[in-house]
Write a structure and sequence with these properties.
Layout (H helix, E strand, L loop, with lengths): L2 E5 L3 E8 L3 E7 L17 E9 L6 E11 L7 H17 L6 H16 L4 H15 L22 E4 L4 E3 L11 E3 L1 H12 L10 H16 L7 H9 L9
Parallel strand pairs: 3-5
Antiparallel strand pairs: 1-2, 2-3, 4-5, 6-7, 6-8
Length: 247
């Protein structure tokens, strides 16, 4: 489940990412009081089987009942993990529209949450998740080759993030006056590795490289989403080294 919000006195509007139907938003009548049809299922970090009926006159489906399949329990016990998992859910919600990309993005989100729940390194998993989600949503950035000339990265020469062109470019292809961000060669290589490897292979990245990679992916995501991703603020505040931490 991606999110819920109250509707009237006892109903809820629920948004789900599903394997078969993509992103689905529906109304759960009486959800606040129902212990039989929705008990324990309209919460984050649970796997459910949803039964719903499409309404002919509305984009909202009518949720008939939800059955609990499994729970990712680590997110309820650790604030860092809760923030990271909330970011995965919110970013998925922001990047997916309607019934598109069901199976691929459902699997991607499930993989990310399962890895985090099992104790995989948070920063590496999130960077890989961001890059895979950009690709699955049609915004795959050019990372291993120059977006302009197609040349592969050469030695330790830095690359430059050119947001308007959707990826990294080499020095010779930077246009006069173009706003770019320099990216170290090691970071560019790691971004390309994370983008093309399974999420489970994300571990082992140097912390300094991950910090620069996070700045790059944040800019790539901001370029294709409207408004802030609110859970990112919580994620940043929960870091031990954050000056505005909540600990």
């Amino acid at each position: 489940m991606l999110r819920t919000r109250p509707y009237g006195e006892s109903d809820r509007i629920v948004t789900l990412i599903t394997e078969q139907h993509g992103k689905v938003t529906g109304i759960a009548k009486g959800a606040k009081n129902s212990r039989r049809r929705f008990a324990g299922t309209l919460e984050p970090f649970v796997l459910i089987r949803a039964v719903f009926r499409q309404r002919a006159t509305s984009d909202l489906v009518f949720l008939l009942r939800c059955e609990l399949v499994g729970t990712l329990r680590a997110f309820t016990r650790d604030l860092d993990l809760f923030a990271a998992g909330s970011y995965v859910l919110e970013l998925t919600d922001r990047m997916v529209f309607g019934r598109e990309s069901g199976r691929e993005i459902y699997g991607l989100g499930l993989d990310a949450l399962t890895l985090l729940d099992a104790g995989a390194p948070t920063d590496a998993v999130l960077r890989a998740f961001e890059l895979h989600l950009l690709a699955a949503s049609g915004y795959a950035p050019a990372l291993d080759r120059c977006r302009a000339c197609g040349r592969a990265a050469d030695g330790e020469d830095p690359r430059y993030l050119a947001l308007e062109r959707g990826g990294l470019v080499c020095r010779r292809c930077v246009r006069a006056g173009e706003p770019v961000r320099p990216v170290a060669a090691a970071t560019a290589r790691e971004l390309a590795r994370l983008a093309h490897s399974p999420l489970a292979a994300a571990a082992g990245t140097d912390a300094a490289i991950l910090r620069e990679a996070a700045a790059v992916t944040a800019q790539l995501i901001a370029a294709v989403t409207s408004g802030p991703v609110h859970s990112l603020g919580l994620l940043e505040r929960t870091r031990v080294d954050s000056p505005a931490g909540v600990r």
